[in-house]
Amino acid sequence: MMSMEDWAEIRRLHRAEGVPIKAIARRLGIARNTVRAALASDGPPKYQRAGKQSLVDAAEPEVRKLLVVDAKMPATVIAERIGWEHSLTILKDRIRQIRPEYAGVDPADRIVREPGESAQMDLWFPEPRIPVGFGQAGMLPVLVMTLTFSKFLSAVMIPSRQAGDLLAGMWQLISQVGAVSKTLVWDRESAIGGKGVVTQAAAAFAGTLATRVVLAPPRDPEFKGMTERNNGYFETSFLPGRQFASPADFNMQLTEWLPRANGRMVRSLGGRPVDALERDLTAMTSLPPHPPATGLQTRVRLGRDYYVRLDGNDYSVDPRVIGRLVDVTATLTRVIVICEGQVVADHERCWANHTVVTEPGHVETARGLRARFSAAKRDRERAASLARPTERVMFRDTASYDALFGVNFDPATGEVID
Q1: What are the respective helix, strand and coil percentages of the chain, to the nearest 5?
Q2: Whose CA, among 51, 126, 166, 248, lies 20 to 30 Å from 31?
Q3: pTM higher than 0.70 for the full model?
Q4: Do 155 and 147 meet the contact criterion of CB atoms below 8 Å apart?
């Protein structure tokens, strides 16, 4: 085959210097037909490997017959139907090539994002295990929000994927931005819309903010690909070289880094997210006067051990409200217990599992209540014993039992007399 250098030299000699074909062939030591081919070609020579026969070629007609019947038939089923006895990999590769001819192609149009239109939500799970206290560490979720017009990023690490924590995280990110997009785009996260229908908690949250939760179609990652790509951006630009002492430390470092992320040049935007944010905010919906209901909430009757359980952990409560109903609320950072409008416990939320969080003041109060209860019990028992009337106990002479059973004793010796 003619080399690229020969092709270029042939064209230069003939067109620039006017050297005839015969002379070019003699000078370069190549055939005249090769020279003619180089002069007639429109572009440089390309190497093309000769096609190789494949074992799948003979089986392809049968494969196509099956794909006509069911375009989604798995490759393993096709292999079984046609009696395939060779490598399954080469058969899968061929099926992957020809399947679109029968299953059709679903192109995705490029969407023009309007200001204030939507915010994409997603959970990112950074690989480093974060210490959470009590000798425990875990892989915790990070809620990421991306405004689709300005590409503005915000994120926060949250304790769990429960609905209350997800909603609390969303409210924190939205309130930090200062307005809410017309739609909040989620994949089918179980606490938001795992069954294809928005959950009541998520619908109530959206209703309070006058927005709408939109669920992505199943198996369609491009639907919210913007925030999916941002998760990868966090992996490559935020995580490397960092160490975290706690979830609070992670959030502090993330908060310090986010202005740099929002100040970078974004090619698709043609500018910086922080510069385009104002247009987004102008088109968004203002926040309501009262915040939506978020966090974990429960109501229980406080038992004698004066602890309440929430998210797998036990928190002490003022024992003076034992036996009464208490309302327990967990934000992302605090656990607060209220009884009849009064705060009876306020703890820092523990992100570990199966732990006991105790307020020393509650233990002291319980010790005092227990001592007073015991003293009052002793006083009641003493008062009851003093108030009981004294009665004379009558004793029968044992000789009467001897007479009853016909037994006689000698008074002098004490022996039985027959």
Answers
A1: 40, 20, 40
A2: 51
A3: no
A4: no
